[in-house]
Amino acid sequence: MAALGLIAAGAGSAAAVECRLALLLAMDVSSSVDAAEDALQRGGLVSSLISPEVKQAFFDADLPVALAVYEWSGRYNQEVLLDWTLIRDEATLLRAAERIASSKRSHNDFPTAMGYALGYGAGMFERAPTCLAKTLDMAGDGQNNEGFSPRQAYANFPFDGITVNGLVVNGADFEAETGLIAFYKGQVIRGPGAFVEIAQGFEDYERAMRRKLERELSAPVMGAASPSLTEPQG
Questions:
Q1: Rounded to whole angstroms, how far apart are CA atoms 185 and 228?
Q2: Cα angle at 183 between 179 and 189, to 5 degrees?
Q3: If you write DSSP's letter for every residue of 10-76 in order, what string do you get?
Q4: What is the C-alpha separation between 191 and 174, in angstroms, rounded?
């Protein structure tokens, strides 16, 4: 797209810009996620990445997307599943999806230390390719229950220029989980245009992730929209 070239030129040295978006996906593997649920979210992420809609969104612009994925749970329990990879073509995207598909869960008995997970993500962005925009995608099925809060993470780690979106995995009892949605909306999402996508249980993870990736990959590089909450749709 010509518009992306103009934005890159306006941002400084166009030659230094490698990608239009650095997209970092963070997956919850805390103790509240059992083995069957983890299989649903891991498989759902893989399926959404190679879905026709998401593939089109990856390649619907001149500049590529840099993609990375990590899983998180306790204070010191984060594991990179896919390090920063420039998704230049379908073959690279397929290899990235295969890397995630073949990954093994690193931890299963630690609490939900989201502040630490966010701090870890900020560190990953420090070694990301130079992109026009940065988005951290936090998925989870529970509120922070160990260590410092997301707000404290934002105050103490380098989050300038990073948009944080959320994927809430809602429990079977929707009313019981409204606090989780409010937590994500009030404390987790951050930056212009930040939003929350809702999966109604892990069985709905693939649909929610696909919808969220489409939105993130298709978003304007620069914008000033207000944070929003997205309810599930078909």
A1: 8
A2: 145
A3: HTS-GGG--BSEEEEEEEE-STTS-HHHHHHHHHHHHHHHTSHHHHHHHTSSSS-EEEEEEEE-STT
A4: 27
Mean pLDDT of 52-73: 95
Query: Do 23 and 57 contact (CB within 8 A), yes or no?
Result: no
Give me the count of residues in the chain: 234
pTM: 0.86
SS3 146: coil
Structure tokens at 113: 């230390």
CA 86 – CA 148 distance, rounded (Å): 32
Element (H, E) at 199: strand 195-200
- Indicate the DSSP class of residue 204: G
**Tell me: the pLDDT tens digits for 91-133?**
999 999 999 999 999 887 788 899 999 999 999 999 999 999 9
